[in-house]
Amino acid sequence: MQVLKGSGWVFTCLALGLALVASALSVIETSHRCRQMYAHLQALQTAQWDMQEQRGRLLLEQSTWAAHHRVEQLARRQLGMRLPGAAELQVVRP
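Given the sequence above, the corresponding structure tokens read:
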């Protein structure tokens, strides 16, 4: 192996130094982006949890509003509906 002399040695050291600095900056930038993405992931997971809670509350509210006894009460009070008597029933056969 031949030892570099003069400007060849300086050029090689300079090139290796620049490569080292570029590599270090790349590692720093990648670490920073990783932290940013993780923070974004945590924010999205929090939003997902909040939305799941809200969906559960809305499903509970929907089941409350659509309960059979409540619909029957509203039909009687607001629409004046009632069950037909036996004389009012008509059977339709094909």
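Residues 7-72 form one domain. Try to locate this feature in the token string yourself.
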